[in-house]
Amino acid sequence: MLVLPDEKPLPGDTPPSSQVVSQQFESARDIATNAWQKVKTTATNALEATKQSVHSLVDYSYDKKDAFIIRATTELDSIDQKIKELSDKAATASGAVKADAQLKIQTLRDQRAVLGQKLDAAKQATETQWNEVKTAFQKAYDEVKQSCADAWQWLAEKMGA
Q: Which of 33, 1, 3 lies closest to 20 in space, CA to CA?
């Protein structure tokens, strides 16, 4: 039986032994530690995936435009997945952390929408427009990837606190 400080035990209840209280505390601490480790691992994995996937898209010449589009589409799918995972994780937060996380996630979604528009522009680009369009996409892509990594790091810190 767990009795809160301002709660009176029911007649016939016996107060928990210090060993029971210690076991309950240890169990709660283990659960919190495991949850924090999962958040840290997820954030670390997201950051590492970001680092590994940021191979410069700028290296694609116009004659490799189709390969660029395929690669960029794959990268956008990856960003979408990371945003979804972040959203799912943020849904488990409470109070101000959840509200702040929702704002950060909306910002990510807005950045992602702009990135999608830049990909559409790349699909339509002529050879003379190619370098400019490709560079604009790369810049927006780098910003979204960094924002996503930053949001994961922020959430990990807030949920671990």
A: 1
Helix (H) or strand (E) holding 8, with range, is none
Residue 68: count other Cβ atoms within 10 Å of its Cβ.
23
- Say how far apart CA 155 and CA 45 lie, in whole Å: 14
Single pTM value for the model: 0.63
Q: How many CB atoms lie within 10 A of CB 65?
A: 17
CB of 137 closer than 8 Å to CB of 122 = yes
Helix intervals (H) in 54-129: 65-90, 95-124
Enumerate residues 6+ apart whose C-beta is below 8 A from 127. 62
- Domain 18-160 sits in CATH 1.10.10: no
Q: Say if CB 93 and CB 78 are below 8 A apart.
A: no
The pLDDT tens digits for 44-64 are 666 666 555 544 555 788 899
Q: By mean pLDDT, which of 13-27, 53-67, 83-97 is the weakest?
A: 13-27
Q: How many residues does the chain have?
A: 161
Q: What angle do CA 40, 21, 5 make, to 5 degrees?
A: 100
Residue 159 neighbours by CB under 8 Å, 6+ apart = 35, 36, 39, 89, 92, 93, 97
